[in-house]
Amino acid sequence: MPIYDYECTDCGSVFEWIVDRGGNPPPCPSCGGRQTRKLMAAPAVHIKTDRTAARIEKRVKDYLKDGKVSDATRFADKAASMVQSDQVKRIADKLHEKTSR
Can you give the pLDDT at residue 42? Predict the structure, then answer.
């Protein structure tokens, strides 16, 4: 069964709900309101981190070779937030350490 994000139009609360196919919109857990709407959400994707970390590191180095430090930092931060890997986080941290000097 899929998990969807909903927003209550009465109180503005956003919450997740497991829904059967064709099920009715759930009530708001905060206020009990019945006026809820399904939100668009990005699908959950599993990323293999062993090859991904190497590709991320290469792309960061390419940005740095081109002198695009801010692009390298932005890319490394976004990658670290999307890929749950200590190796990718270390890449971003190392870049911040070198650029803050």
Answer: 65
